[in-house]
Amino acid sequence: MSRCSTINVTTLAGRSEAVEVGPSASVGDLKRKISLLAPENQRLYFRGALLGDNAAELAECGLSDGARVNLVAAMRGGGFSPGKGKGKGDGGKGKGGKGGGKGKGDGKGGKGKGGKGKGGKGKGKGKGKGGAKQVVVKPHRHEGVYIASGKEDVLVTRNLAVGDSVYGEKRIAVEEGEGEEKTKIEYRVWNPFRSKLAAAILGGVDSIWMKPGSKVLYLGAASGTSVSHVSDLVGETGCVYAVEFSHRSGRDLINVAKKRTNIIPIIEDARHPQKYRMLVGMVDCIFADVAQPDQARIVALNAALFLKNEGHSVISIKARSSRDTPESQPRSSRDAPEMHPPPPPPPLQLTLEPYERDHAVVVSCYRQDKSKKQKTS
Question: Which residue intervals define the domain Ubiquitin-like in the entry (predicted)?
Fold first, then answer.
């Protein structure tokens, strides 16, 4: 910036303020100039990027005369609420010992006394409130899932990759056992707003048909957020075949699988299960979250190849749009219900409110066609 510039700063309240910036100004100078406009919990953003404090960034980001900078509130992390504490301390009052000595000499002697010193003892008092409450972890009725009770009850899974956080979730370390046999076990908080399976568990689904040692085919694995928790749930003896079509999300999924040996990432279209047939064995359960209009067909194709007889599928579906409601259907179809009998209800259907709007999970059981079974036998 070769000359003095005017930067337009827009606050969260919508006010626009002009700030003069000198030719050698840094972002730190700009922040100090707008400190009266921005509370402490706001950060300086330009074109979607958070600005640093070095002087070079001001010119690199193109903050020229008339540029506009927005103040954006900083996001806070989730998990347990932090405790609040207050403390007071009083400080060092005390008296030290007396030091000195007497000296005698020949002839005209001399006497001397040492000085007195103070210092020494200090007293301090401190009080604190609202620190971290001890967390108690109890098993959930679904095997492999747990409930952590602290300031609030949260759903957790036992971390298979200790020390690793997949999507910034909170981790809880709990000591179990007594005496010398005490061991530290780490759990990961399972966020129902980011995982439809967690939302179904908190919604009261009868069974998720997954437990330690299960083999699960996960269709629509995305970046591996929910897959990582399923990996924790089935444990080292189980296996998760994670299918994702997007190459961008697939890269994140592969990074998750590098630290979890029971995840097998498959970057392929779930509509064509024959393409990854050589990678997947028979599974106990299929979880599908592919958000496609032919989702039931996709699950059926995969179930025919991979799901064991009497195995179960858990499908996350989005509710019908308004154009599919009975009012928008042709009059003939509404007036002649006997021509279009309603399909049989699924074994279990559960809404995901309040965690997901217009979503539900459908749990179904797979039974092989008897005619096909006889042919194969």
Answer: 5-78
